[in-house]
Design brief:
The protein contains one helix and 33 strands. It is an all-beta fold. This is Glycoside hydrolase family 32 protein.
Length: 481
């Protein structure tokens, strides 16, 4: 592996730090024309270490400017995950003249000898659009006497009750607190016992409303990330619950496990705060990695990238409610040309040459009688990633065993699979970047996010069938030159 080939892994469309380690997105907030991305950052190494808050800003969530580190460790501990909000009405008292940003984050102190770790919630505020930060002199503002895992505060203003609501990861539950001023917090309720997946510790919650498609109704959605458990082959992943929230208690519609992403590499994602009402979108961003191998992925000088930003909605499917993900429209301006794939019958293989540093494929596939069909992204002549629809089992399988550099993790070799309602008609959108694939199926009903480490992003894309034919049509979007 050459230094040059390692450099090719740096993404063209996704945010990655200039150097050293990154994990969870933190403090996602929109303020005065800028999207802010804070992130878990170890500025002294390329593996996880003492956490700081790194910082980047963007006008469109695709091109980011990395700024100075926002929050450094102090006597209360290192700086774990959290959120940021605009205090429009100066409820905190930090902004007597004009609104500003408040960061709500976890202070983490490692356990010493027989003493357990200590995790508390603290505040910092900024008067200059997040360029400099002042930590609140009364930190920490929230702790717990017995909960060892007590972290990742996600805060929003609940208009109906006129108070701030905090969702906090507390072991295998999410605990809700309320506050009039971001400083004084009151326990409201605890959610999670006996419901959903408990394969690992619960982390990085987010609670918000989403509009139900083709309806004026809304649903509350609670996102919960699940930490890696070495007993299972899944690694870290993210689940969600739909339900209702009355300002104190979240009540889920279901006890079943619903995955936000069926790929291996979308974790700890949360949504942006304070998107303007006239915009109306709920925009989500995740960490594109998996705790099973995040410290071992084959990049040099930097580690990790974020997913592309996605607009979320809820779709009613029968009596079920599903969270839908669509890539934000801002992405379209990074492509200048569409190469049409005219409607055709495919039996065997049809190949389109696409030698680009990143591509965006939209494709409709209608099964005629094929037992299996799908697409292959040919990174190089020897390296490829295959996406297959099995019409007998009604499953989608993403296979990256021959995608390039793979020898850093046994779990990286495992197929990524999702059960579909049927495979008679499938619509997919696939964005291929230097070291990732983001696949959205059936207008965002299913998501598979996957890292790959090939020598090139894409040389060709082929449509293939097995034992029969399909109808195919769509287009490939080509990058701006």
């Amino acid at each position: 592996m050459t230094i040059n080939s390692l450099a090719t892994y740096r993404p063209k469309l996704h945010f990655a730090p200039k150097k050293n380690w990154m994990n969870d997105p933190n403090g996602l907030v929109y303020f005065q024309g800028e999207y802010h991305l804070f992130f878990q950052h170890h500025p002294e190494g390329t593996t996880w270490g003492p956490m700081h808050w790194g910082h980047a800003v963007s006008k469109d969530m695709i091109t980011w400017e990395e700024l100075d580190i926002a929050l450094y460790p102090d006597e209360h501990g290192t700086i774990f995950s959290g959120s940021a909000v605009v205090d429009w009405n100066n409820t905190s008292g930090f902004f007597p003249e004009e609104p500003g940003l408040v960061a709500i984050f976890t202070h983490h102190l490692d356990g010493i000898e027989e003493k357990p770790q200590v995790q508390t919630q603290s505040l910092a505020f900024s008067h200059d659009k997040g360029r400099t930060w002042t930590k609140y002199e009364g930190n920490p503002v929230l702790g717990h006497d017995t909960k060892v895992d007590f972290r990742d505060p996600k805060v929003f203003w609940h208009k109906e009750t006129e108070k701030w609501i905090m969702s906090l990861a507390t072991g295998h539950t999410i605990t809700f607190y309320s506050s009039p001023n971001l400083i004084d917090w009151k326990f409201e309720s605890e959610f999670g016992e006996g419901i959903g997946s408990h394969d690992g510790v619960w982390e990085c919650p987010d609670l918000f409303t989403l509009k139900i498609e083709d309806s004026e109704e809304e649903k509350w959605v609670l996102i919960v990330s699940i930490g890696d458990n070495p007993e299972f082959d899944r690694g870290s992943f993210t689940q969600y619950f739909t339900g209702s929230f009355n300002g104190s208690t979240f009540t889920a519609d279901h006890e079943s496990i619903k995955l936000l992403d069926f790929g291996k590499d979308n974790y700890a994602g949360v949504s942006f705060s304070d998107i303007p009402d006239e915009d109306g979108r709920r925009i989500y961003l995740g960490w594109m990695s998996n705790w099973r191998y995040a410290n071992q992925v084959p990049t040099e000088g930097w580690r990790s990238q974020m997913t592309l930003p996605r607009e979320l909605a809820v779709r009613k499917v029968g009596e079920d409610y599903k969270v839908i993900q669509r890539l934000v429209g801002e992405l379209n301006s990074y492509f200048s040309e569409k190469v049409d794939i005219d409607e055709c019958i495919v039996e065997g293989t049809k190949t389109l040459k696409v030698e680009e540093s990143y591509v965006d494929l939209t494709l409709n596939l209608e099964r005629v009688d094929a037992e299996q069909f799908g697409i292959t992204v040919h990174h190089t002549k020897e390296q490829h990633t295959t996406i297959t629809f099995d019409s007998v089992k009604n499953v989608l399988v993403l296979d990256r065993k021959k995608s390039g550099q793979i020898d850093f993790s046994d779990m990286f070799l495992l197929d990524q699979e999702v059960k579909l309602e049927n495979t008679d008609n499938v619509q997919l959108r696939l964005v291929v970047d230097s070291s990732s694939l983001e696949l959205l199926v059936n207008d965002g009903e299913y998501s598979l996010t996957s890292l790959v480490y090939p020598d090139k992003a894409c040389e060709a894309i082929s449509i293939h069938t097995f034992n029969g034919t399909i109808k195919a049509a769509g287009y490939v979007s080509i990058p701006c030159k």
